[in-house]
Design brief:
- The protein has 115 residues and is an all-beta fold.
- The chain is 0% helix and 52% strand.
- It has no helices and eleven strands.
- The strands form two sheets. Strands 2, 4, 5, 6, 9, 10 and 11 form a seven-stranded mixed β-sheet that branches.
Length: 115
């Protein structure tokens, strides 16, 4: 059974950095498309960044140049390196895995950007 577990969230000051991790169980990690989504207070869930099985990356305009998505197939872990954080980045961040008809979400990790 495939499960996703996020970690690394917390409180950070504006301008700071944080790295999120998403550990994936099961054996379809390397062939899956992965993504980070977020849902801020009173907002809809939105795509932050995605990475294909081949390593192709895509980012929301709001995070380009500040966030970097990566994956380690050997560790079955995906990462989101976040820099130059802004208060508007405050949200619950979720990781997502898609493979064929399989579409699985983690439970999320809270990132709060505040002084």
């Amino acid at each position: 059974q495939v499960q996703l577990v996020e970690s690394g969230g917390g409180l950070v000051q504006p301008g700071g950095s944080l790295r999120l991790s998403c550990a994936v169980s099961g054996n379809i990690f390397s062939i899956s498309t992965l993504g980070w989504y977020r849902q801020g207070p009173g907002k809809e869930r939105e795509l932050v960044a995605g990475i294909t099985s081949g390593g192709g990356r895509d980012y929301a305009e709001s995070v380009k140049g500040r966030f970097t998505i990566s994956r380690d197939n050997a560790k079955k872990t995906m990462y989101l390196q976040m820099g130059s954080l802004k208060p508007e980045d405050t949200a619950v961040y979720y990781c997502n895995l898609v493979w064929g008809h399989t579409n699985i979400w983690g439970k999320g990790t809270l990132v709060t950007v505040s002084s």
